[in-house]
Amino acid sequence: MLAGHGLTLTEFQIMVTLHESPTSGLGLTRRLRIHAAPVSRALARLRERGMVTRASSKRLARWSLTDSARMHLEVLDLLWREVDATTRGALGQELADQVIALVDHLPKTLPPEHPGWSD
């Protein structure tokens, strides 16, 4: 469904997260619990398409959605609800709830990629 709209799952997750509130790239990696490289690549693609903006070029500058991206999310929201319901139906509500609970209990931060690295 997302591929039909030219988005990857990571790009969609970033857009949804930024819709909640602007945040830095580091904040996105923590919130989404994925490494910085895919987040950086996805932000670059979204920026090229005019979907996200950044307040400055500083490392911890906050990213935010453009009005175009917000409208795009409104359209995707309707489609995503159907995908979500279909997935939950295929898994069964009990298994879907267990998967969500497991993900919710994952650590909020990723371990350092290199010894001595810190934020």
Secondary-structure blueprint:
Blueprint: H1 9-20, H2 25-32, H3 36-48, E1 52-54, E2 63-65, H4 67-91, H5 93-104
Antiparallel strand pairs: 1-2
Structure description:
This protein has a single domain, classed as Winged helix-like DNA-binding domain superfamily/Winged helix DNA-binding domain (Arc Repressor Mutant, subunit A), CATH 1.10.10.10. The longest helix is centred in the middle third of the chain and has 25 residues. β1 and β2 form a beta hairpin. The chain has 5 helices and 2 strands. It has a two-stranded antiparallel ribbon with strand order 1-2. The model has no long low-confidence stretch (mean pLDDT about 85). The radius of gyration is 16 Å and the shape is globular.
Supply the number of helical segments: 5
Rg value: 16 Å
Counting DSSP E segments of at least 2 residues, the number of strands comes to 2
CATH H-tier superfamily: Winged helix-like DNA-binding domain superfamily/Winged helix DNA-binding domain
How would you describe the shape?
globular
Mean pLDDT: 86
CATH fold field value: Arc Repressor Mutant, subunit A
What is the H-and-E element order?
A: HHHEEHH
- From the helix content, strand content and strand pairing, which structural class follows? mainly alpha
Return the domain count: 1
Give the DSSP E fraction (strand runs of 2 or more residues). Answer: 5-15%
Low-confidence segments: none
Going by CATH, the architecture would be Orthogonal Bundle
Helix percent reads 55-70%
Strand adjacency order, main sheet: 1-2
CATH classification class: Mainly Alpha
